[in-house]
Amino acid sequence: MSSSVSVANEGGVAIVTIDNPPVNALSFHVREPLMQALAALRDDASVAAIVIACAGRTFVAGADITEFGKPMQHPELRAIVAVLEAIAKPTVAAIQGTALGGGLELALGCHFRVADQGARLGLPEVKLGILPGGGGTVRLPRLVGAAKALKMIVSGTPIGADEAYGAGLVDAVFEGDLTTHVVNFVREMARKGGPFTPVRDRDDVIKETDLAAFDAEVADLARKARGLEAPVACAQAVRNAVTLPFDEALAEERALFVKLVASDQSRAQRHLFFAEREAAKLPGKDVVKRRIARVGVIGAGTMGGGIAMAFANGGFPVTLLETSQEALRRGLATIEKNYTVSVARGSLSEDAKRQRLAQFKGTVDHADLADCDLIVEAAFEDMAVKKEIFGKLDAVARPGAILATNTSYLDIDEIAASTSRPQDVLGLHFFSPANVMKLLEIVRAEKTAPDALATVVDLARRIGKVAVVVGVCHGFVGNRMLAARGSESEALLLEGATPSQIDKAFTDFGWPMGPFQMGDLAGLDIGWRNRKARGLTAVIADTLCEQGRFGQKTGRGFYLYENGSRMPVPDPEVEALIRGKAAEKGIVPRTIGADEIIERTLYPLINEGAKILEEGIAARASDIDVVWVNGYGFPVGKGGPMFWAGLEGAARIVGRLRYWHERTGKNVFKPAPLLERMAETGSWQV
Ligand code: T1G
Q1: What angle (nearest 5°) sits at the alpha carbon of residue 422, between those of residues 420 and 428?
Q2: What is the pLDDT of residue 144?
Q3: Is the bond leading into 22 cis (omega within 30 degrees of zero)?
Q4: Looking at residue 1, what is its pLDDT?
Q5: Proportion of the chain above pLDDT 90, given as a percent
Q6: What does the alpha-carbon distance between residue 353 and residue 334 come to, in Å, rounded to a whole number?
């Protein structure tokens, strides 16, 4: 037997153990010995039953994603499942940790599945731009029904052991030592005697499918796919499970898988899977991380409250400081309301709400932060205010406490210099709403100590955030590139494009919404305040703000929002305002197509990313992709701005930037040297 697969025999029950750290992926060096073991055990008369188990923290987490795009090495998972499923002896999968993708498909090849209490089971392939390719789309519906299978496969979201048991996906859930339980379980099954029906032959649940309701759900999913092919293919494959004979449906699944796995969208989403994990890796040797037991948050407003919730949700006690009891009361009330809304939505239990609220301690006295190991400042975006706060923190925080600012733009080196401990100062730039948005830009200041940085990178993972380490500059990575993306927005309006046309070019590209709809959602007054603080103007947006048109919150912004609706309605008044301002500037409006809109917004975005890489503000091009997908909604099917530059063609981007630079003289169009090198080499390597 190989080191990746071993077989033990416990009184006639064969236990096949897969051992392929860290997540027992079904790599080739697992598949080959696994196939051999199953075939041998099938023919071994002394074996009465077979258990498939995994060593380590988790059951099989799927196919080995690193093998995609390389020549297939047989046996494939499908062949293994076919052999497994044809075994007449009782077979059972013992699931701890996660059974995902090919791991769950392997388990579906068994007669039975048992799980420990903390297990999670799912088919997340859609998040990689593919679909379950090991028979999951045809077997899962036969256990849980077509509707639930559709939801699981199209969302890619795993379910817990109890839910899986209730749905018929697992046959027993155990606490404690799974192996002992599972051997007893399968012995009992063998004692009861067969025949043991393989999942492929169980058609009773499928037969109950309400196809009309199913098709309505599929149509709704297709509308929400935003150009992604995998969700639509997943739905089609599950429908095939209902309407086609098993083997035909299996063949259709294979055909869809082969097509998707070769697609740019899947390459983009697999790129993001590894990019997120790379982003959390720090250069140099591992350092001992500091202990974080209690977190302090300064400011209980929108950002501070959201940040406090993010840590409480991650199980950390939080001390929340405000400037007055009234502000503190308001902040805590908002936090409680947010949890109440989650309970009403069914995404949080009452018990969990109570546990999380119990994590909070409120104060107006900085001295109460003395026992905090990390303090996050989320006060007003003003350098003088922040320097004053950090001066106080320097006096009260315990030695070794990490002092973080949530600033979106300001110079953290300057903030650090206002303390006697710059080595403990860094930026934790959360994105609003901080308790929801995944991205966390961790800003490494010039003197930030390596162990402080490593501590917060690890902490980000513990609170479910996607961390990207960035350097100090105005706007760090995300907001600096956002400014470049928006630099032409006003010009496009004045030259003849309407807000709707620009937003549609973005949504047709795959963005959840365009820049003007986003501005109305966030509040136009935020950008207005920033511009005034920096002595900048935006003639259209400033005028709208002067008229009190801040967006959704005032019912009017670039669009109208009638009767409190969030649906944007084009406003003739705004279009007249734009035409009037254009006339004042002697600009004759013209028709502007989507291609030009993309060239004058997304190409500058990529160009700024290239400058950020050259300056060392981001360590990797893939880090920039992680920022934009997790913080700004860049379409996952395009892999992020820097990955997409490769799909779009860097040479084309450089050519068009040169054209716009010559036509407008604007620096935002001047191609960055690294982008020009990338156009020649195909690499973002600085
Ligand atoms: N293949 C290869 N490497 C993988 C992997 C996989 N499936 N899953 C994780 N890794 C690596 C990961 O890159 C990291 O490497 C290390 O393992 C720890 O991962 C036929 C075709 C299981 C929930 O999509 O969701 O099956 O950075 O940091 O936070 O139909 O890993 O250390 O070098 O994420 O504890 C479907 C993907 C595949 C599951 C654990 N399965 N993995 O999370 O650790 S396609 C998935 C996860 C498929 C079949 C189809 C998570 C996890 P490194 P980690 P974690």
Answers
A1: 130
A2: 98
A3: yes
A4: 56
A5: 91
A6: 13
Give the residue numbers annotated as catalytic, written as ranges.
Answer: 105, 125
Mutate to test the pocket of ligand 1, among 23, 28, 254 (most ligand atoms within 8 A of CB): 23
Predicted interface score ipTM higher than 0.90: yes
Q: How far apart are CA 32 and CA 602, in angstroms?
A: 46
Pocket of ligand 1 (CB under 6 A): 22-23, 25, 61-66, 77, 98, 100-102, 105, 124-125, 128, 130, 132-134, 136, 274, 277
CA 511 to chain CA centroid, Å, is 15
Q: Whose CA is nearest to atom 42 of ligand 1?
A: 61
Position of tokens 């027993």?
A: 172
Residue with tokens 């007003």: 380
Give the pLDDT confidence of 278-331 residue by residue, as tens digits. 999 998 888 999 999 999 999 999 999 999 999 999 999 999 999 999 999 999
Instruction: Name the residue type at position 141.
Output: P
Q: Say if residue 77's pLDDT is above 90.
A: yes
Q: How many CB atoms lie within 10 A of CB 590?
A: 9
Structure token digits, residue 492:
């496009």
Given pLDDT bands bounded at 50, 70 and 90, which one contains residue 59?
very high
Average pLDDT value for the chain: 95
CA 229 to chain centre: 18
Q: How many residues does the chain have?
A: 686
Q: How far apart are CA 525 and CA 531, in angstroms?
A: 10
User: Tokens 């499923």 correspond to what residue?
Assistant: 85
Rounded CA separation 311/251 (Å):
47
Residue owning the nearest CA to atom 47 of ligand 1: 61
Compute and round to an integer the Cα radius of gyration of the chain: 28
For residue 495 the two structure tokens come to 């030259």
Ligand 1 atom with least separation from CA of 64: 1
Give the CA count within 13 Å in the CB-facing half-sphere of 454.
13
Q: Tell if the pTM clears 0.90, that is, is over it.
A: yes
Q: Pick the atom of ligand 1 nearest to 278's CA.
A: 27
Q: CB-side exposure of 494: number of CA atoms within 13 Å? A: 16
Look up tokens 């730039």; give the residue: 429
Give the integer Cα–Cα distance in Å for 405 and 425: 8
- Per the CB < 8 A criterion, the answer to whether 541 and 535 are in contact is no
Distances (CA, A) of 581 to 171, 311, 491: 69, 47, 11
Which residue's entry shows tokens 């530059």?
A: 645
Comparing 182 with 176, the larger pLDDT belongs to 182
The yes-or-no verdict on residue 63 having pLDDT over 70 is yes
